[in-house]
Amino acid sequence: MIKRYPRFIYIPNRNIVNGNMTIEYEIENGRILSPLPNYDYEKINDSCEFEKRNWVKNIPFVSRLSFVENYTCEELYSSAIEELLKVEIPEISKYLRVMMLELSRIRGFFLYIFNISSALEFEMPREWALSDINRISKIISEINNNEYFSPYIIPGGIKTQFSSTNISVITEYLEYLKKRMKDYDKIIFQNEIFRLRTQNVGVIPRQMIEEYGVTGFIARSANVTFDIRKRIPYEIYKSIHFDSFRYEHSDIYTRVICRRNEISNSIQILDYIFSNIPVESSTLNKDIYQSKARVLGEGTVIKRIEGINGEFILFLESVNDEVPKTIKFRSPMFVIGGELLKKLLENTSLDDLDLVLASLSLVPMEMDI
Amino acid sequence: MENNYYEAGFLTHDIKMVTGVNVKYESKGKFIIIDSKKESLTFLLDFLFTKWGFNYLLMMNCGIENNNYIINYILSSRKPNIPIIIKISIPKEIPVFTTMGMIYKIAYQYEEKIYEKHSIVFEGNPRTLSYFVKNTFGKSKEND
C-alpha cells in the first residue's frame, strides 16, 4: 500500500530568497519529501516579447530581466548586437563595462551574505550586509546618472560619460572594501558557529553538477573549475590575471567561502582597471544608431558571460531586419532553481531548508527569462 | 585561434564521417551548426556526449519556420570551446518528438517549457503528456 502524506506549502522569507516563490512538499520524520518549487508569482518576463520590437527599442527591456543581474543581461545583449552589426566599440568602454560587471558582482555578494545571515539569524552581519548593499548601490547609481536600473551598457559602448570623480569614489570604496572584508572574515567566515552549522549541510555531489550542467560559484565550490572569464574571455578579461581557488566538495560552508574568495578576484580586477584605463573622451560609438546602419546582418550569435550566480547565455538569430528573429536568454537560475533544487531538497531536514535555499542565491524572477 | 580552427575542423570531419549529417563551421561566430534528421538525433547526441565530451546542454529552444517547428539543441563541452547547435525540424501537424532526458537530465526541464509554449509532446518525458494520455491515464482527480 502506498503511504500518503499531506502536502504543505512553504513560503520562504524574502530575506532568504530574492523574490517570491513557494515550495510544496510532504514531511516524513522531519525530512522533506517530493519538493515542488513554484515560481509562478514572478512570471513578469513573459511580457518582454523581444521578437516584436526592433533592437533599439529592446534596450530598456533587457535591463528589467533581473534586478540582480541587470548589467550582465545588458552586456550579453549589447555584445551580441555589436557582433551582428560588426562594429567596434571604444577601448575605454570595454574597461567600463568590466568595471560595472564587477561592481554588480560585489553587490551580489553582499546580497548573498544578507541572505545567508538572515537564514542563520546572525543579526550583526545581516545589518552590515544591508548597509553595504546600500553603499555599493549608491555608487553604481552615481556612475549611472543616479539611476540604478536604467541601461548603462548599451550596443556601441556605454550610455553615460565617465568622469574622474567616479574613479576617486570607486578607489576610495575599494580601500574601504579591503578593510571591511577583514571584519566580515572575523564575524562570519571564521566564526566557529557558522562553520559548525554549515559544514556538510546541503552537499551537492560533483556528479550532480556535471549531470545538470550547473555553473558559477556552485560548480566551482565542487571543484569544477570552469569560469567563462578565463575559458572564453570577453571584453578585457583576457589581459587580466586573477587567482582561481580549489575546493573539495560543495556544502554550504564551501559555497559561502567560494563567494568570499571571488570578491578578492573582483578587487584584483578593479585594481587592474584603474591602473590601466585609457584616456578617451567618447565612450559610445554612435554610428550604429543611424537609421541606415540599424539593420542587423544575417546570422546566429551565441554569447556566454559569467554572471553573478553562474553562466548567462544568449541565443540570437537575425535575418537582415531591425527586429531580431529569435532572442532567448538563459539564466543559471533555470538549472539551480529547477532540477537541482528539487534533488537537493529531497530528504533534507526541515531545519536546514532556509539555509539550503539561501546558499543557492535564488532569484525567482530569472526562472522564466 | 589556430588551435581553435584545428579543433573545429577535426570535430566537424569526425561528426560527418560517423553520423553522416550536414555539418557547418561558422568561423565568425565560432560555433558548429548541424542539421540533423529527428531519427538520428539520439545517436548523434550520444556520440557527441561520449566521444567528444559534450556533456553540457546550454539551451534548448523552439521556433516556427515554414509551418514546421524548429528545435535547437545548443551543446557545449568543458574541453573544446566550440558550442554546437543541432537543428531539428518537426512538422506542425504531428508535434511529437522523443525526449533527450536519458542523455541530458536537464533536457526534461527544457522540454517541459517547450511543451507549455508550443504543446510539443516529448515521448518518454512524463511532464509532457498528450491531451489524450493525460485525461485517460493521468493523475486521479481524488485530491482535487
Q: Care to describe what's here?
A:
The complex is a heterodimer of chains A (369) and B (144). Chain A is an alpha+beta fold. Chain A contains 12 helices and 8 strands. In chain A, the strands form 3 sheets. Chain A has a 3-stranded antiparallel β-sheet. A 3-stranded antiparallel β-sheet of chain A has the order 6-7-8, with helices on one face. In chain A, strands 4-5 form a two-stranded antiparallel ribbon. In chain A, a hairpin with a 7-residue loop joins strand 7 (311-318) and strand 8. Chain A is globular, with a radius of gyration of 21 Å. The model of chain A has no long low-confidence stretch (mean pLDDT 89). The radius of gyration of chain B is 17 Å and the shape is elongated. By secondary structure, chain B is α/β, with parallel strands linked by helices. At the A-B interface, helix 7, strand 6, strand 7, strand 8 and helix 11 of A face strand 3 and strand 4 of B.
Please outline what is shown here.
The complex is a heterodimer of chains A (369) and B (144). Chain A is of the alpha+beta class and 369 residues long.
For the largest sheet of chain B, list the strands in their spatial order.
1-2-5-4-3
Beta content of chain B: 25-35%
Regions of chain B with pLDDT < 50 over 5+ consecutive residues?
A: none
Order of helices and strands of chain B: HEEHEEEEHEH
Task: Provide mean pLDDT of chain A, rounded.
Answer: 89
Determine the oligomeric state from the structure. heterodimer
Spans of chain A with pLDDT under 50 lasting ≥5 residues?
none
Question: Strand pairing plus helix content of chain A: what structural class?
Answer: alpha+beta
Q: Could you describe the largest sheet of chain A, including whether it forms a barrel?
A: 3 strands, antiparallel
Helical amount among residues of chain B, as a percent range? 25-40%
Q: What is the rounded Rg of chain B?
A: 17 Å
- How many distinct helices of chain B? 4
Distance between the termini of chain A: 42 Å
Q: In whole angstroms, how far apart are the ends of chain B?
A: 60 Å
| Separate helix tally of chain A | 12
Largest interface: A-B, 25 and 24 residues
Structural class category of chain B = alpha/beta
Number of strands of chain B: 7
